[in-house]
Amino acid sequence: MHDDGPNAAGAAVLTYRFWNTVLKGDQSVLGRNIRLGTCTATIVGVLEPCVPYPAETELIANVVTSPHHLSATMVTGRVHRMTELLGRLAPGATIESVRAELQTVNTRMLHDHPEAYSPKADFALDVTRLRDQITSRARTVLLVLMAASLLIFIACSNVANLVLARSVKREGELAIRAALGATATALRRTLLAESLLPCLSGPAIGVFSARPMAAILSRYASRFSVRALDITVDSSMLWVGALLAVAAVLLAFVPRLPASDTSRSLSLSGSSVRVAGGTNGRLRIFAITQIAGSFVLPAGASAL
Hints:
Elements: E1 11-14, H1 16-21, E2 33-36, E3 39-46, E4 59-61, H2 67-70, H3 95-112, H4 130-135, H5 139-169, H6 171-179, H7 184-221, H8 235-249, H9 262-265, E5 266-269, E6 272-275, H10 279-303
Parallel strand pairs: 1-3
Antiparallel strand pairs: 1-4, 2-3, 5-6
Helix pairs in contact: 5-10, 7-8
């Protein structure tokens, strides 16, 4: 039985998305007839979950209503030259071997039908992976998004540096608290409580805003690639947010707590407090890193 031609029986295959969303996963759809324009087709199958191709495909049918596509030129003529075929590579086959085989076919066609294929027209046959075909127009967008994610990482590093610098700068305050009788446990508990609110509220806002932001991104990127329609918030991203929150909380344990001989290294001059040790060196490293990241962040954001 032929599935092509004007006399072929109408047959349709539904995409998994259409079957699951529109037909609510109805198990009895096989064998039903559906009307497509003036023609009727029988549902013969449902595709497994996959990327829709071409874009926004809901069902695939052999029903043709265009007079041009019903004419004999589609079968016997050579004027219809914008044909696209989809196939699965045979076991052991490569893109290079398929491309070489098509080149042989193309050369033979040009030799056998010189009247139909003018050398000036430069007719050619080519083969491309479906993955590359789907993502080719989205490559630039994906690179821009990757650059944006790197800028977000730089921004988070800047915030972490600011928190670290602030914490290290408080070593003098911690020394005074210790001299007044505060224990190391009490000091660490104070630092931990101060870091909990900003370090947990940020990841929480990010997690709750991830789904609506992903939906906005999906609608925008779908203009470049049909794969964007499948963008979802992966659970691994939630784990990343949780790990970042824990790492941020651990910043409370960075400052060096005063030792038992703090009173010997504590010097009061007017209203200022100076702590001996490597505080200045660490603050200098933080400052250099902060300034470098601050230059990269606005430059990259402006370019994007």
